[in-house]
Amino acid sequence: MTIYALSTAQGQAGVAIVRVSGDLAEKTINTLTKKRLQPRKATLCNIYKDNNEKIDESIVIYFERHKSFTGEPVAEFHTHGSHAVIRALLKEISKIEGLRPAEAGEFTKQAYLSGKINLVQVEGLNDLISAETEKQRHQAIMQYGDEATNQYLKWAEEIKSCLAYIEASIDFSDEDVPTNLIKDIKKISKKAQSEIDSYIKTEDDNEILQAGIKIAIVGRPNSGKSSLINYLTNKNISIVSKKPGTTTDLLRSERTYDGVYVTLTDTAGIRAAKDEIEKEGLKRTKKELETAHIRIFLGSNSEKKPFYGIDMTVKDNDIVVINKSDLKKQHKIRPNISISIKTNKKLNILEKKLKEKIKKLSSSQLGTLLNRERQKNHLIRASKALASIKGGDLEIISLHVRDALKSIDSITQETSNEDVLGVIFNKFCIGK
To answer: What is the pTM for the complete model shown?
Structure first.
């Protein structure tokens, strides 16, 4: 079956691309342009309705089988991006017998089934399409490219070498199997297991990359939390008032720092709650502080106890800040930095410290990161199989080695489970 769809975003634009993939791709070009085109050469053509009325002038490209993204013959129509042109073109394509609209992710599924890309690259492509930050883009391109795939192939080859040792043992009786052969198998499998276990742990780094780094600003009422989040986000998201307790709920704002997605939260001022609303606000503040990657403890220079009532169990990524340094000091706290939001004193230095914390959290793993539950489950099974390689019975060892290899191979080549494939490809938009 030949499929077709608009492959660019819906809506009016300068250019739109309609893609046709399948055996009837070349026929579609001939029907709509009245021409036969040279493969892989952009050609300016008129596109016609079946009554010979001109629809548009378009750049048309034909890709032969095995030379396209999908691996199938492909036709691409690069038209003007008006709603009218797109509707007219899709209507004419639909009249050609043997063509049907593509389902979500079906072009990419064709590419996978034809061996152009593997499942890890499919998932990386989906991440690349949805990437919002530079860090997300960088990680997605490593998954879509060869980096992640090569890591899995490396483990597969190491595990295969264990099987080679086991095959070599066939020439020996049980009593004569060289002891160094079993030692070599265990050495290789232990090394692979260690690397796999380390890779599984990178899931936490990927969670930070995708969900972002959570930063919570905590302090007593009127310490300047709202003013600080307004400064850090360049937005007036929080009401600034001299009256204590203005913020009774969590207020969030998102931005990026050097390509890293960050969520900043202005929490309710910590004091004895006067009503049910304040109690709920303080409850949410406590929960936010437990999950935040970075906490900015903000106190006032004019108070004797700037952090009274606040649990000051400071962690490595936290920053203790004293605000209102333009006022007379009334405390004995030694903060990481003293600032004045009112006069902008040292705010740039505070932001620099914050960026350093963000960079540290986002760059703990420089290589590829584990970013799929599907991949993780196969890796866990492979690790367990490799960990079970004990004793000297080669038949049992062989079973564990084969289980490990099957699990690793399934990460890139999982073709037997249609439910899994459905979940993966349905996450794509139509046209990709």
So the answer is: 0.77
